[in-house]
């Protein structure tokens, strides 16, 4: 599974970072960087939570 961000939508709220700070990092310019797009299946619940809670709907999971 991959987690991807649409940078054109991301507004830097950092909700994703608060859910998984080892994966998501909001940069000084207000956009998020993903450290390791390919996530193990065991990480699905946490990644789904980030996708669901992103207020800009900028994240998505790709199987
Ligand atoms: S929660 Fe969404 S809008 Fe906020 S930093 Fe993460 S991807 Fe960007």
Explain the layout of strands and helices.
Layout lengths: L1 E4 L9 H5 L4 E3 L5 E3 L9 H10 L5 E4 L1
Antiparallel strand pairs: 1-4, 2-3
Bound molecules: iron/sulfur cluster.
Task: Give a quick rundown of the structure.
By secondary structure, the protein is an alpha+beta fold.
Question: Would you write up a description of this structure?
Answer:
This protein is an alpha+beta fold and 63 residues long. Helices cover 24% and strands 22% of the residues. It contains two helices and four strands, in the order βαββαβ. The strands form two sheets. It has a two-stranded antiparallel ribbon. The chain has a two-stranded antiparallel sheet with strand order 2-3. The longest helix is centred in the C-terminal third of the chain and has 10 residues, at 44-53. The chain is globular. The structure holds iron/sulfur cluster. Iron/sulfur cluster is lined by residues 5, 10-16, 24, 26, 32, 54, 56, 58-59.
Count of helical stretches: 2
Query: Can you tell me the overall shape?
Result: globular
- Going by helix content, strand content and strand pairing, the class is alpha+beta
Mean pLDDT: 97
Which terms summarize this structure?
63 residues; alpha+beta; two-stranded antiparallel ribbon; two-stranded antiparallel sheet; 2 helices; binds iron/sulfur cluster
């Amino acid at each position: 599974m991959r987690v991807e961000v649409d940078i054109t939508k991301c507004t830097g709220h950092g909700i994703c970072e608060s859910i998984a700070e080892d994966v998501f990092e909001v940069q000084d310019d207000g956009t998020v960087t993903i450290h390791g797009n390919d996530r193990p299946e065991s990480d699905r619940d946490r990644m789904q939570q980030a996708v669901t809670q992103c207020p800009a709907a900028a994240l998505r999971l790709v199987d």
